[in-house]
Every structure is written in C-alpha cells, then in structure tokens.
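Q: Hi! First time doing this. I have a protein sequence and I read that you can turn it into a structure. Is that right? Here it is:
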Amino acid sequence: MLRRINIEQYLYDFGSLPVVDVRSPGEYEKGHIPNAVNIPIFSDEERAMVGTAYKQVSRERAIEIGMEFVQPKLQGFVNDARRVAPDKTLVVHCWRGGMRSQSFAQHLVDNGFERVYVIEKGYKAYRTQVLNGFNNDAQLVVIGGFTGSAKTELIKHIKDTSDQQVIDLERLANHRGSAFGGIDQGPQPTTEQFENNLFWEWKDLDLDQPIWIEDESRAVGTNVIPQALFENMRRCRLYFLDIPREERARHLVKDYGGVNKEALKASIMRISSRLGGLNTQRALHHLEQGEMYDVAMMMLVYYDKYYSKGVAKRDPEMVTSIPLKTANPIENSIEIKKILSDFLLRL
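A: Yes, that's right. Below is the predicted 3D structure, encoded as structure tokens:
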C-alpha cells in the first residue's frame, strides 16, 4: 500500500515510523528531519547533471538521464530500505514530495513493502513547520547567570530528576556558548539542522506549562536561535543565579582543567582583542604555568562584564536575582525549585 500523508499527519500520527530521505547527500547534510536515514536516489554530482539537463534541455531528457543513474541501484534501494524498516513499513520523502519520493516509494511497494507513506511537499513542508513553530508564546523559565554558574548542568539535572519540561539549547547546538564552548564538543550541526532538532523537541511540549531554558545569546557557537523563540526568551522573566566569582572559577577549573592547553590557548587568543594585550599575555602565562584557577578568574572578569551588558538591556522588573553560595547544580536545583514553586503551581 502506498499512501500520501501531510506533514501534520507525519509529525503527530506517523512520527514513530522509520523515515527515509531520498535526497542527495549534500541536501541531507545541510538539514534533515531528525532520525531520517539518507538513501539517496542521486549522488550530488548526479543530481546536478539531472538539474542541468532539466533547465537547459527538457524535462524528458532529465528523466532519461535520471533513469540511467537509477537503474543499477534499484536492488540496493530495496536492500537499504529493508535494513531501515525490517517490518516493511516506513515513511519516504524528498525535497517537495515529487518524483523522487513517489518513484522510490512505488518501487518499494512493487518489491514487497506493505505500507509506504509519502510526505506531501516533502522536507520543504517540515521546514515550513520549523520556521513557523516558535511563533506562539510559551511559559519559559529562563535560567541565567554569569559564566561558570553551571546553568546547563542545572537544567539537565532538573530534566533528569523531575517531570518538568526542559529545552537544552547547548546540547542541541553541541556548544557551551562561549569562545571556549566548542572545546571537546565535536562539530556543530548546521543552523538549519539545529533548528530542525530544536523543533522536533519543541513540538511535543505543552506551551501553557513551564519550560525551563537557559539564557543564551542569539548565537550558540555558529548556531542561531530562531528569532521568535529568542524574542520569547527576552520577554520572559530571567532568574539570575548570583554565584560568587571564586565558586564559578572553581567550577570552570573542574570542567576545563584537563583540557589540552593548546585548545585553551586558541580560545584565549580568539578573544584577545577584547581582553587586551596585557591581560592576554597574563592569561597565557598562567596557562603555561598550569595555574588554571588564575586563568579562570581572568576570563570571568571579561565574561562577567559581557553578560552584564546583556542583562542591562532587559526590563529590570523582569530580572529576579537568586543568591547562591555554590555552583553545585544539584544543590541549586533544590533551592531554585523552592523559590519558583509558587510560580510553577500557578501555571
């Protein structure tokens, strides 16, 4: 059976099924539906040749060239799809739900697949959902604080130990949000993929109930937070974790103390123009001597000033400072949930 479904049906009725993206590898790498497996009908080079023939010659010639590329791969498509969906039920899409996904799906049905669903308007429909998906206001619990406040760890602990809704932007971006934030994190997704992954989690949240989220700049490394969500974060109350700088420096040493010195040096040099020449040289000297606490304290002087400028742009009536003695996320989560208990119960 071959059936066409719209994007809403896929997201809320068929989202648990295996999904195959038949676009080229380059299209897939730029951005794809989370959990989708790429079984490309054309390589990037083949797709370019088909597209050129379509534009410069005719649709018919483009189809002929496409068939020449596809014919030797037909059995491979079936084999790959069986590995993805052993029970022979899956979802297929291409860019706009056109010839590529329709032909691929029909080929699977002709070769014994029991149920194949094609997403109408394809990946483009998913991107429309993503781009419009953050327009509604949400009840955000925005957790802020100077660098080293263990905000990400606190958010994670709340998610792991309660039924609270949490969005972890730094996990989704694979970046800790500073010049040092990419160390030991591996490559970031494209901004398009970051948006896709973020929406995949966002779509299942109850926007009328609290959603815990960390205060961030618009850019998290190279990824950019969708404008509507970022504006929502700025409208909501900021709960500022006011932790002594010395405690935060100790927390940073714990996080970064074992990191390769060359990576830390590169990160210091990345902000050298803002640190100033003398401070940069002092920081590098402390680093070379293994005086990690002193390095952390110097970096915090800079980052505290930078973050303070951002907080100053907010309505001061919408900033609640929470004095805390430690950067320990477990202890702080208990304290913060006590402070916010009335707010959480009202929603």
